[in-house]
Every structure is written in C-alpha cells, then in structure tokens.
Amino acid sequence: MDQKNLTISIYLDIVIQMNAQNSLNPVQYFKALADETRLRIINIARTYELNVNEIVETLGMGQSRISRHLKILTESGLLTARRNGLWTFYSANTEGIAGLLVKSLAENFKIRETYSRDLDAAQAVREERGRESRNFFDAIAGKWGELKKELIGDSGLDERIVAVMPACATAADLGCGCGDLLPMLLKKAGRVIGVDRSAQMLTQARNRFAANPAEAVIELRLGELEHLPLREAETDCAVFNMALHHLLDPAQGLVEAARVLKPSGSLLIMDLYAHQDETLRTRFGDRWLGFDPEMLTRTLQHQGFILENTLEIPLKNGLKAFLIRAIKK
C-alpha cells in the first residue's frame, strides 16, 4: 500500500473509532487541521512543550494570530494546554482519537522542509532560553546564598533531604548551585558528584571546598540536567533540590535521572507546590511556578519509579515545598 492510500486508511479507521466512541464530530477535527499554520503548530508541539511567546518566536507570526490558532487547536483537543501561573504551555495530545490524528500526521511532517525548519527554529528558541538561564545564574552566583535564604528561610530543606537519603556509595546533586548540599551528602555517601549548568556557580562551590580537605573529594561537573554528564547507572542516589522548576523540560530531567541511577537507586525531589507568585520568574530564574506532586508522581511512575513517600514543608510567604522519595525499578 502506498503512502497516500495508507494515510486514507488511517483516517477512515479514525473516523470509524470516532463514531464508535461518540467522539467529537469528525468534521470539527479535520476543520481544525485544514490550516497550514495550525499544522505547523502541531508539528512543533509534537516535540516541544512551548508557551505562546516561544511559538510566536518560532513561527515569526503575531501573537494574536497564534493565539487564535491555539484556541482552535485546544478546543478540538489536538493540543493540550497546561496552565502555570500566568503562562500556558502547549503540547500535542497523545491520547485518544486526537492523539491518533496527531500521530497520523507524522509522515507528512517528515517530507515537508517547512516543518523541518520549524523544528530547528523551535530548538533555537529553546537554546536561547537555556543561555538566558545560564547567564542569569552566572550573574547572581555570588549572592545566591542570600537570595535562597530569602525564599526558603530557615526551613532546613537540606537536612530533610539527608534525613530520608539512604546510605550509599555514590550520590549526585543535580542542579547543585554553589554546593550547599554537597558536603551534607558526604554524611551518607562515600562519593558525591555535583552537576550544574552555571560555570560561575561551580566556581563558587569549588572555592569553598578547596579550603577543606574532607570536601575537596567532591566532584563538580558542568552540564545540562536534561543531558547529564554522568554515565548510565553511575549513581545510587540522585537529588533535585529546588532545581526541577528551572528546567526547560522537567520530564526530560527525570528521564536523565532514571538513566544515571542504578537499579533500586533512590531519587529525591525537593521542590515547590504549584503557586501564583510570578515574581519568582524574574527574581530566581524560575521557569515553572512549582508543580502538582500528584502529576509529578504519575510522570515518575511512567519513567519506571516506585513512589515511597511525599512530605510537605511550609516555607515563607505562604509557599510550600514537597519532598518526594522514589525508587527506580
């Protein structure tokens, strides 16, 4: 069967399933797909979860035009919209009839150069966001300790992490910043690795450890948390300590954590509950205004983790943190 007939067969199968499931009128789905700009949006949303401004930058169109297309696509169910503070992030639906329709477009996206260029443009936008984040943390590295205390006060988050951490051979702090947690991890681990994307943050950590021979054994590695500079199954315990909300793609960060953990290894996540304080984006470089622990737990289970427990910790200014401990199968 050639590609054209295969595509027709797929669409007929989808229409049959729509009728069987009393789904949205097929015409409404196909009407939503009958626009080149909307197809371009679906193409990039299959690979990346982006906010409105990032889609505008990627496609080089006006915001009102993009917003109108996003409304049509979300109302049809072809896109999902995830609200986070004042920002909304869009991704292609992967479930049900809408997911089948999106999947059926894959071959069409492969053969058109426009779609390939759009993916390159989306990647460039994300890389620019990464550079902005890296530059932000490089600039504030010298005063990060003061800023962090302003947010979490004396809530003892580091101590809580160490309290639930198992004794192990190797532990990795993913997003270690200036290294506050790293010496404490040595209480439970024979070898400690700190990873951060900011060279200036790691310089701060390196300088503080150099004066103490016991801490000089701590390894510091420069790298992205979505592409960790660690080998597969290199660590027994991995920690995200107030780091996940800085990532462009938290789910990919969890995929990487699973990769570098040994079987039965522990993953500890300390982060903020979902909140509405938009100032944290500018003051602390947050991309995400916290998370719903239940949604995060489902993501972890999908990545092959078993949830052990979740703790809730009150912070300053009405914010709350959670600590999740999960075990890799």
Report on this structure.
There is one protein chain. The chain has 15 helices and ten strands. The model has no long low-confidence stretch (mean pLDDT 91). Strands 6-5-4-7-8-10-9 form a seven-stranded mixed sheet, sandwiched between helices. It is 49% helix and 22% strand. It has two domains: 3-111, Orthogonal Bundle (Arc Repressor Mutant, subunit A), CATH 1.10.10; 142-328, Vaccinia Virus protein VP39 (Rossmann fold). Strand 5 (189-196), helix 12 (199-210) and strand 6 (219-222) form a beta-alpha-beta unit. The two termini are 41 Å apart. By secondary structure, the chain is an alpha/beta fold. The chain is elongated.
Task: Kindly summarize this structure in a few lines.
The chain is an alpha/beta fold. It contains 15 helices and ten strands. Helix 1 runs antiparallel to helix 6, helix 3 crosses helix 5 and helix 4 packs across helix 8.
